[in-house]
Amino acid sequence: MNCPICKRKVSLTKHHLIPKVLHKRFKKKKKKYNLKETIDICNDCHNQLHKVFTVKELALNINTLELIINNEKVKKFARFVIKTNKNQINMKTGC
Q1: What are the Cα distances from residue 78, in Å, to 6, 7, 29, 48, 70?
Q2: What is the pLDDT of residues 35-68, one digit of tens each?
Q3: CB 3 within 8 A of CB 67
Q4: 77, 83, 85, 86: CA torsion to nearest 10
Q5: What does pTM read for this prediction?
Q6: Alpha helices (H) in 1-95, listed in sequence order
């Protein structure tokens, strides 16, 4: 399958739209959150999301695939990944 962020055909991993470390806190809130909701994205994009955003930002502001894809920081990374035209990116070196 293709990653919905960078569009590469690579193996995918599950990304929790509400990070698991916040599940206990979100269960206590009156508003209902779907804590089990995940999306399938590649490891590079997954690592980048957690590198660029705090878990609180991910949970409150970037908690749908549409919001992730339309975020300018994510778009910039996706363009970089596509430009490199490689299957997997070394996150330490960027190559």
Answers
A1: 5, 8, 33, 10, 11
A2: 788 999 999 999 999 999 999 899 888 999 999 9
A3: no
A4: -40
A5: 0.79
A6: 23-27, 43-52, 55-60, 65-70, 72-84
